[in-house]
User: What shape does this take?
Amino acid sequence: MPRPMRCGFLLLASCCSLLSVAPGWACPARCECTPQLKSVSCHRKRLTSVPEGIPTETRILELNKNRIRCLNAGELSSFPMLEELDFSENVISSVEPGAFGNLFSLQVLRLRRNQLKLIPAGVFHKLANLSLLDISENKIVILLDFAFQDLVSLKHLEVGDNDLVYISRKAFSGLLSLRELTIEKCNLTDLSAESLSRLQSLEALRLRHLGIGLLEDQNFRRLGRLRLLEIDNWPLLEDISPNAFQGLNLTSLSVTFTNITAVPTAALRSLGHLAYLNLSYNPISTVPRGSFRELTRLRELHLVGALLVSVEPQALSGLRQIRLLNLSNNLLSTLEESTFHSVNTLETLRLDQNPLVCDCRLLWILQRRKTLNFDGQPPMCSSPLEIQGDALHGFPDSVLFEYFTCQKPKIRNRHLQRVTAREGQAVSFQCQAEGEPTPSISWVSPQHRMITSKSSGRATVSPGGTLAIRYAQVQDSGTYICIASNTAGNDTYFAILTVKGPSADGIPDANRTSLLGEFNETSHNDSRVFIKFTLDLKTILVSTAMGCITFLGVVLFCFLLLFVWSRGRGQHKNNFAGEYSFRKVDGPTSASGQGGARKFNMKMI
Assistant: This one.
């Protein structure tokens, strides 16, 4: 008997202990409860409303994946201790103002994947401690003014995958603490700079799957604390304004899956603090020299699947701290060492899935293949045929200079070309070269200007190296230099052009008056226009008469000067001298002397 009594006492003590730990935790029917966490989970129970019997001390309430249609005012007011509330994946179409009243401790609210079309003002009233709000994947068409004004502590807001067509200018008013904002899969065609400017504490902004076609000037003004900006899947985006990122201090920027066709160099100039840049999956064919020269702190650059054909020498100049470069899945045949500011800082290189030509231009990679990280995807040789498919890091040192070689350019058909033409005629010079890799052809004009295949204006260079000059002018005369160059060196060739003036009959060519622009050999449209005057008999007579009048006027002026000078000199006497002589005067002798009176004469010299 004593032993059964002892067991019964222990069982009673255990039950009392359990009740003391979790008093009042009578779990609602069809729900799962965790008393230690004060959590109630009622997901996938086909509920049409908030079930009865939920303990008032509940902190975590999960009602996701049910059939709840609306949230009425005061329906949750009996759970003041709630910290997390999940209504995701229901069929909620309306939320009345005051539905979340009395939930002063609520920090996380999820309303994802419902049927909400509008967020009325006052719905989030008194949720001053809410830090995360997810209203994504609904049918919200417009964000009204002051929709979130009571959420002063909100840090994360998810509004993506809605039917948004418009965001009111004051929709984000009150979000003083918002750190992250995601807007995606909407019907927005414009981004209001004024609405975003109210998010002055924003640090991360993700804009995905939008129908916006242009990033305008100062779209993100007043977002001085923004550090991460992600622009992804904007198929209509073809241009980025030079001042689109003005005022930002970004450290991470992604512009992916758009239709921009060039590196937005002008827009990147103001991002001196940028450390991460992703321009992948844009139809960018070339990276010109100096494209990132202002990004001195950039450490990672991604240009994956961008249809890149070439990365020009010095394209990465200025990137003094580059650590990772990802150019995989492009159309590159090579990547020269001269592309970089310095390859010594590079740690990871991705060049896989490119049709690489393994010659001397890739020798710098082989020299660093033991220390350079290829991230498990080493680049492969596409040519020459003998080593096609071989990985670069697998070549032994003994064969490096057997395959990875280049041939210096050599210009074919070097006989001197000397052309004489009249003004207005078209002129061309041939220049063809061979070498490995294929040399690039450029010309230097008599004015020492470089003419390349990218030049525009009257002088252009064809892909085959032919220099063509339309509407030749006298000032085009001189010696032209063809330069064929590749990694192994260069070769030069000269051609002489003489352009004569109009024909003797004075009749100009029909085409000569239509275009009189100077060379525009550079890519900056640097042109000058010359105006041509015709000298006839009347013009010559008028000019001669004007010249004669001018000459006679000068002569008359000189005579006047001489006359004034001579008059002035005649009136001025430098010195004079006097002398006297005695003359005898007939008549009586005066009392004062003998022989009559004396006279005094003076003479000026």
Residues 537-571 form the longest helix (35 residues). The mean pLDDT is 81. The radius of gyration is 46 Å. The longest strand covers residues 489-500.
